[in-house]
Fold this sequence. Notes:
The chain has 206 residues and is α/β, with parallel strands linked by helices.
Amino acid sequence: MMKLYAGLAVAAIAAAVGGTLAYTMLRAPDDQFAQCRSSAVAGGTGDIGGPFTLVNSEGQSVTDADIITGPTLIYFGYTFCPDVCPFDVARNALAVDILEEMGIPVTPVFISIDPERDTPEAVGNFAANMHPNMIGLTGTDEQVKAASQAFKTYYRKQDGDDEFYLVDHSTFTYLMLPGVGFAEFYRRDASPEEMAESIACFVTAS
Length: 206
């Protein structure tokens, strides 16, 4: 179903990207990504993103250099999340499928902000159920906190049941490019097609 939906969106997005490139050639901005930006804080300034060490689904320690080897979408959430996280991660997966149809490989990454419950196996299963290429990461409290701070994200465990608790958290998805770092963020209201068009612009301009 996702592949079918992705295929229907490719032609329109490709045309939009082509138009963007034509505009870029005429404008010739100093910032190579200026024509792609939609957020006020985007710009690859180095303020968002940075070194991190986490644990993958195999229980192995990995760093940002191991993970961000190509265009990468990073989302912070948790596997027990009842609604927001599954919706956002599924949206990201669909955007990745649309981009794949366009010949642009992008890796989706899910970083847990609930290491108390999200074991390597748990994040691995969650990621695999969302997309075959999705990478699930967790870690110690300190590792997760450091990664969250690097991306300027927020999370807080709610008071209540020791086992069935909720976690408040920010819901941005971050586009990271190797050699560039942070390129753009996407809010919850961005559609898969809008994300794919934007990401294609960044990748083409990089």
